[in-house]
Each structure stands twice: as structure tokens, then as C-alpha cells.
């Protein structure tokens, strides 16, 4: 006998709940995401203070989302790598370094964009 499938809306609501739980775990347990959250709050307040344009808001919010999302993926890669091979292994180390490098690239671009938005307003 085939098990009945949950209604679409119930299934989506459960998915959102799992995603929200994952976001909270990430924020509660990862120091790097806490730092990025503080930076996100600082540039958000700066955006209000300097009255940045709608386009600048869109770019700034996109970069905040990108950096924090990639940090979440990086954390996932690290957890999976540690689960698969808990002992130090050069290949696992390389995988973790590449994943961290992706966060670093996004962070550098975010800093450059922040400079493009805010330096003319500060100077």
C-alpha cells in the first residue's frame, strides 16, 4: 500500500522550518558567521546613515546574502569532510581550503563593493 503524500503547502512549510532551524544553528555555532552578521548590521546601519540609493541597497544586500550563504556552504563542506574522514588527511584539508577560499573571494568582493559605495560618501 502506497503511503499518502503530504499536501504541497504542508511540505513547503516544513522545508522552511528546516531551513530556519539550519540558519539558527549556523548563527549560534559558527564564530565566522557571527562576525559576518555584525559586519552586515554595521553596513546596514551605514546604509541608513548615508541614505544609499536603491541600487546600492540591492548590491549591498546581495553581497551580504552571498557571503553569509557561502559561509553556510563552507561550514557544511567542513562538517561533511570531518564526518567522512575525522583524522587529518591532505585531500580533506585541500577540500576545506578550497571551500574557505570561496568565502574569502566573496568577502573580498564585498569589501570592494562597500568601498565603492561608502568611500565617496565618507570622503
TrEMBL record:
Q: Which Pfam families match?
A: DAGK_prokar
Q: GO: which molecular function terms?
A: kinase activity
Q: What is its EC number?
A: 2.7.1.-
Q: Out of the domains of life, which is the source? A: Bacteria
Q: Could you list the residue ranges that cross the membrane?
A: 31-51, 98-119
| CDD domains found in the cross-reference section | UDPK_IM_like
Q: Where in or outside the cell is it found?
A: Cell membrane
Q: What InterPro entries does its record include?
A: DAGK (IPR000829), DAGK_sf (IPR036945), UDPK (IPR033717)
Q: How does it sit in the membrane?
A: Multi-pass membrane protein
Top EC class, one word: transferase
Q: Which family does it belong to?
A: Belongs to the bacterial diacylglycerol kinase family.
Q: What is this protein called?
A: Diacylglycerol kinase family protein
Amino acid at each position: 500500500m502506497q503511503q499518502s503524500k503530504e499536501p504541497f503547502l504542508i511540505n513547503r512549510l516544513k522545508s522552511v522550518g528546516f531551513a530556519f532551524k539550519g540558519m539558527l544553528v549556523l548563527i549560534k555555532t559558527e564564530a565566522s558567521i557571527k562576525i559576518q552578521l555584525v559586519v552586515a548590521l554595521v553596513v546596514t546601519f551605514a546604509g541608513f546613515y548615508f541614505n544609499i540609493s536603491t541600487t546600492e541597497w540591492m548590491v549591498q544586500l546581495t553581497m551580504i546574502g552571498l557571503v553569509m550563504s557561502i559561509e553556510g556552504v563552507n561550514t557544511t563542506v567542513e562538517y561533511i569532510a570531518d564526518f567522512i574522514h575525522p583524522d587529518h588527511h591532505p585531500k580533506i584539508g585541500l577540500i576545506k581550503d578550497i571551500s574557505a577560499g570561496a568565502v574569502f573571494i566573496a568577502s573580498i568582493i564585498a569589501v570592494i563593493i562597500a568601498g565603492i559605495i561608502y568611500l565617496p560618501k565618507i570622503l
